[in-house]
# Entry
Amino acid sequence: MEDSAHPKRPVTVADVAKAAKVSKATAARVLGGYGVVSVQIKDQVTAAAAALEYRPNELARSMSTGRSGIIGVVVGDIENAFFSLAVRGITDAARLAGFNVIIANSGEEIDAEKSAVDLLIGKRVDGLIVTPARCDRLDHLRHVRRAGVPLVLFDRAIPELDVDAVTGDDRDAALTATRYLIGQGHRRLAYVSAMDAEEGGITDIAGISNSAVRERVEGFVSALTEAGLPNPLHYIRLGATDQHQTHAVMRRLLSEISPPTALLASDSLVGLRVFKSLQSLGLSVPQDVSMISFLDADWTSVTVPPITIVDQHVYDLGKLAGERLVARIERTPLAVEHLRVTTSLVVRGSVATIGR
Amino acid sequence: MEDSAHPKRPVTVADVAKAAKVSKATAARVLGGYGVVSVQIKDQVTAAAAALEYRPNELARSMSTGRSGIIGVVVGDIENAFFSLAVRGITDAARLAGFNVIIANSGEEIDAEKSAVDLLIGKRVDGLIVTPARCDRLDHLRHVRRAGVPLVLFDRAIPELDVDAVTGDDRDAALTATRYLIGQGHRRLAYVSAMDAEEGGITDIAGISNSAVRERVEGFVSALTEAGLPNPLHYIRLGATDQHQTHAVMRRLLSEISPPTALLASDSLVGLRVFKSLQSLGLSVPQDVSMISFLDADWTSVTVPPITIVDQHVYDLGKLAGERLVARIERTPLAVEHLRVTTSLVVRGSVATIGR
DNA sequence: TGATATAAAGAGACCGGTCTCATGACATAT
DNA sequence: ATATGTCATGAGACCGGTCTCTTTATATCA
# Structure
């Protein structure tokens, strides 16, 4: 009865004003915490507001101030530990500055990303953090700029966009990890990524539309090249998008005439799939195959052996992106930058020393 | 120059109307997709809108319609795989119905939860899904009801609140898992949870303020009782809130005169900590100690041995909560219900058969 | 005592949409 | 030819805040 009978129109400043016998403007001053009001009136209004259980309509507030207090975040896949940890970092930075976060998932699809961006702009977010699925379709991001909404790219940079980006130092990370593998005596190294497969393997590194993937491949290839190893592109495999695909990729890879002795997995999901795949093929790590995965995910420390990983300091990455965006929103004068967070190799037990 | 020089006031219906040489009302009809407009005028307005790159201000739209198209979700900890998977389920259900999701983290703290709820109500969300940190402080949730905002509780029920709840069948899950352990010959069983420790162990099950935790403990105790095992509360341990605490809890537990032979971990984070703790104590699973964890987390399938788990079908749980809330928002006539999603025991290798 | 400064409160425009109601044009019925 | 109805468009109120500008009351000074 009490709930359904009163669909109860929410209490507004006008209601509070009437109850406190003051003008709407005065009540608004108290409730909004601006302007000058006498102590007596202030108490009067506060009391009336409490009695009526007044809650400000943030929507209306945003309407007139033009600020929503919301930061929009478009990520590739929230379920991925990489993103959920990054979101934590972003959220913490945002909350510290008094902003809230609204999250949208693009599923790494450019159209979903586009509509998510449009939607958030429509909600008049104060700023936007986007993980661009591709670096070649930019209209929607250009539009964000033109709409005057601060934008920070996350995990992937797009130099031609002239906008801040926060990423790991992917090139260096791959370089370091690969050098380490080479240093342990490995000569045939594979790189496995979840990026959608192009036909017939990699031929054109510069053409990879995802900068994070591209930089990692570049680092990987550089390390092989500087070590004088032949055919650096030979063992690069894309398309490890799910367990089934990964398994297929792994079977093909390991049934080559000279199969690789070490694998570099492009992210923790791929790493997990690769590890499972090796298990089901009856291969043991690192005796039969060595591996390194990106990201310090849960699972990497409890396997036997624990997995050697490239720690991307994802939380910091997210926090930095959040802080950068806040600075932009607050119009702090800053040059456009590509901030790279250095990564660190955490050596555990998944890489064997061979050929000595 | 071009970006900074034009802080570029966003394009409004009025601007489009002027450009299309029609009234604001007519332009709004076309842009908002309501009312009746002749085809000719419609094209005219559409063209003008495209030329000006008009984007509707969803805030203003929400103001006048009273609907924001947003569902608010307050979770305990987004970083926890349980919640991030649930959020995926919620988000999918929401998007299917045309809603967006805004996520807030309570950190399982009642005050943070309170302010998150207030904030979301302020943003005029169309509905709210909350994981209540406690079942005894309810003012803010009562207020949600009074404000006329549909509410669905997630993972934990509060019967006295007369509101929908979607949870796993925690009692049954714990009962089944415990019975299984007993069936494998275990007689000394421990239950380890991350809930804040009360002094001196558990004495009053009915007093546990988190219904999910309470039901699991009840199920655990029921199974022990029906098997005629003595002292069912003896090995229940709370306070496994981080790796350090968990380690302390485990040391104490396993240095008892008759230590437990099997452990039930209340969630996947606790499970992971327990597993790591066992590793560092040099104990092997299941030879030295058997264990079962809640939630089919990543790590549980790649350990040696893989962990026997209680699968809570979390994605479905989230999806169901999302669907239920959408139904409420759309005023589908439904009785208030506590929906329980049945769980299933996935037997892998972390439980030994003993004493035969 | 009157002039002026200053603090506090009120009146009402505004943000950008939605939506009701009024108006005008044209077609059909009488 | 006049009345009636329908359809497309225009005018303007409204949502619930913020904020500028104006008015009123009180204090300060010559």
Summary: The first strand of chain B starts at residue 70 and ends at 75.
